C-alpha cells in the first residue's frame, strides 16, 4: 500500500469519526488526596474507615501495595507529579525554609540545603520551563482543568499558566481561600464540595464538545486543620464512643475521610451518568504519608509519619481503573513512585513524550495492562532537605537532610549532616525495626554506589558549608 493511499484512508477516517477517538484518547480523572496515609482507607486494611466509593474503585481496578510519594511533604511531591521529575531537577525542595526562622536550628546546621526555586512576586513553586503533564496532554488534544490544592506557586506560577485550560487553587475546608482570588463564590461551603462541583461542570462541558479531558482533582482533604462536617463527626463519635484506641483527632480524620469518599463517589457517578465510565482512566493517590495522630492509626503498622522518610511518611495508596483494560480487583507489589504517573498517563493515552524533556519515572502501563509484573528500573531514590526542630539537649534535629535509596529489597539512608548511614531489609523487616547496615556492608556499598550515580544523573546540589554554623 503506497503512502498516498494510507494518508487518504487516515484523512477519510478522521473526517467521518472526528479527531478524537476514545480508544486512543481515553479521558483521565486524576484524584489526589492530601496527607492520606497508606492505612487510611478501608480497602487498604483499616476497618475503622468508611470509604465505600474508594473501596469500589479499588475493587474495579488495580491497586499497588508498594506505592510511594516522591517526598514526605506536600509541595515537593506535587512538583514531582506535575513535572515527572525528581526534586533535584525541579528544585521544589521544601514546603518552607523553617530553619531560617529558627536560630537554634540554623546555627546547628553544618550545611545549607539547596534553595527552593522562586519567582519574584509568585513565591516558591514550579518553574514555568517545566513541561507539565497537563501541557503534554494539551498537545494531544485534551481539555484540561485543575480545581483544588495546587501548592506550586501563585500569580505567574498559578494553575492556568501551567497547562490547564481552567482552574484555580482552593485551600482550606470551611472558609477556604482561592488563588487567584475568586469573586461570587461562597467560601463558607465545604471546599471538597466546591472542588467536586467545579470538576463535574468541567467534565460535562468537555463531554458536550466531544473532547477528551484531563481532570486533575487535588483535594485539600485530609490536611489540617481538622474540620470535619458536623454530621460525620457526630456519626463517628457515636460509633466509636468508648473505644480507647481511637483519639479525638482520629475521629475527626475519619469524618474527613468520609467526606473525601463522598466526593469521589460523585465524580464516579458523573462518569457513569454520562456513559464515560469505560472511556475514562481513573487514578487515585495521595501526595504523602499521614501526619501524626494519637495512635497513628492511619500509618500503622509502618514506622514514621508525614515529614519523615520512614515508610509511614512516604507510603501512599495508588488505585488505577480503566474498564476492559485494567483487570478488576487486581493488585501489584511493584514498587512505584509519583514520577511514574506522568509517563504512565502518556503511555495509556498514546500521548507523545515531550521533546528534549527528561522524565525520571517509568511508564507503568505494561504492568497495568498485564504485560509485565515488575518495573524495569533498579531503584527508587529520595532527597529530603528539610532541616527543622533542633534540640540542644539531645543535639538532634526533628528532621534533617537525608538521601534515601531503595534497591534489591533494602533501604539505605544517608544522613548528610554527619555522613552516617542506616539500612533496613524491607523484605524481612518492612516496619523498619532493625538497622542492618553493619551486617551487610557489601550490600550497603552497592546502594551507595547507585545513589552517587543518581546524584550525577540528576544534577544533585552537594552540601555547602553553613556560614551561620556554631560548633
Short synopsis of the structure:
The protein has helices at 3-17, 52-60, 74-83, 87-90, 103-108, 133-138, 191-208, 230-239, 248-273, 311-314, 341-348, 365-368, 441-458; strands at residues 27-33, 62-64, 67-68, 111-112, 118-119, 123-124, 143-148, 166-171, 177-179, 213-218, 280-286, 318-321, 330-332, 336-337, 379-384, 388-391, 396-399, 402-407, 410-415, 420-425, 464-465. With 471 residues, the chain is an alpha/beta fold.
Question: How would you portray this structure in words?
Answer:
- By secondary structure, the chain is of the alpha/beta class.
- The protein has 2 domains: 26-377, Alkaline Phosphatase, subunit A; 381-465, 2-Layer Sandwich (Arylsulfatase, C-terminal domain).
- 29% of the residues lie in helices and 19% in strands.
- A hairpin with a 3-residue loop joins strand 5 and strand 6.
- It is globular, with a radius of gyration of 23 Å.
- The chain starts with a helix and ends in a 6-residue tail after the last strand.
- The model is unreliable at 1-22 (pLDDT under 50).
